[in-house]
Write a structure and sequence with these properties.
10% of the residues lie in helices and 25% in strands. By secondary structure, the protein is mostly beta strands. The chain has one domain: Glucose Oxidase, domain 1, CATH 3.50.30.50. Strands 1-13-11-5-7-9-10-4-12 form a nine-stranded mixed beta sheet, with helices on one face. The protein has a two-stranded antiparallel ribbon with strand order 2-3.
Length: 213
C-alpha cells in the first residue's frame, strides 16, 4: 500500500468460526476447547481446535481436486494479496458466461461474486446457492484471473459429482475463495487479503478475508 494513501472503508468478509456453525454436509464439525486454563493454575490459556480444511471462509488448494496438485503450503501468497473487484450478480441458479460478457474485465486480477447468498442467514446451510457454470469458469480462465471468490459455499453446484468449475479454474492456475460474506460490501474495486495457513499436505485452509479501499 502506498504511504499516505487514506483507507476509508474496511470490510471483514470472513465468517466467524464457532461451535455449531453451518458446514458442508459430511464435513468435520468445528470444535474449540480450552486445553490449559489460568483458573486451573496454569500461567496462560491455551486452546485446541479441530475442524475441516474447508470450514467457513476458506480457499481451495489444487490438491482438493487433484492428488498431484499443490497443497496450501505450496501456493504463492501473491494470489491472496492485491486488487479485487466485487461484482453483483442477480442469477438465481448459476452464473453463466453471458452474465459476464457485458462487464469490464480490463485490469481485473481477482473477482468476488456477490450473489443472493449474501442476504441469507449465516447460521444455516442452504444447498440452493448460486454456482459458476462451466462456460463462466472457462470465460474467467481466458481473462487471466488470479483468484475467483464467491459468497456461496462452493463454485460448483451442491449436487455436482465431478466439480467442473473447480477443475477448470485450478487447471488454469486460478485460486478459489469460498464462503466470503459480502452482504455489506458494495460492488466496486478493493484491495484484498485472504492468506491461508501454510499447512503441508492440506487441500484447503480457512482464511481471514479482508477488503479495503
Amino acid at each position: 500500500m502506498t504511504r499516505g494513501r487514506k483507507i476509508s472503508e474496511i470490510f471483514d468478509t470472513s465468517r466467524t468460526l464457532k461451535q455449531g456453525m453451518p458446514l458442508w454436509p459430511g464435513d468435520p464439525d468445528f470444535n474449540h476447547r480450552r486445553f490449559l486454563r489460568i483458573e486451573d493454575g496454569e500461567p496462560s490459556n491455551v486452546s485446541a481446535i479441530t475442524m475441516g480444511t474447508h470450514t467457513g471462509t476458506h480457499i481451495d488448494a489444487p490438491l482438493h481436486v487433484d492428488c498431484s496438485g499443490k497443497d496450501t503450503a505450496g501456493l504463492s501468497v501473491h494470489c491472496f494479496i492485491g486488487p479485487a473487484r466485487v461484482v453483483q450478480v442477480q442469477a438465481e441458479k448459476c452464473i453463466r458466461a453471458a452474465d459476464l460478457y457485458p462487464l469490464e474485465w480490463i485490469g481485473v486480477e481477482r473477482v468476488l461474486f456477490r450473489t443472493p447468498c449474501s442476504s441469507r442467514a449465516e447460521d444455516s446451510f442452504d444447498p440452493h446457492f448460486v454456482h459458476l457454470a462451466e462456460d463462466a469458469s472457462e470465460f474467467l480462465a481466458g481473462k487471466g484471473i488470479l483468484l475467483v471468490g464467491t459468497d456461496a459455499p462452493s463454485v460448483d453446484a451442491f449436487d455436482s459429482k465431478n466439480l467442473p468449475s473447480h477443475q477448470i479454474l485450478m487447471r488454469n492456475g486460478i485460486v478459489i475463495l469460498e464462503g466470503i460474506r459480502l452482504g455489506s460490501v458494495p460492488p466496486g474495486d478493493y484491495f484484498l487479503v485472504c492468506l491461508p495457513l501454510k499447512i503441508a499436505g492440506a487441500d484447503g485452509s480457512p482464511v481471514r478475508a479482508v477488503l479495503w479501499r
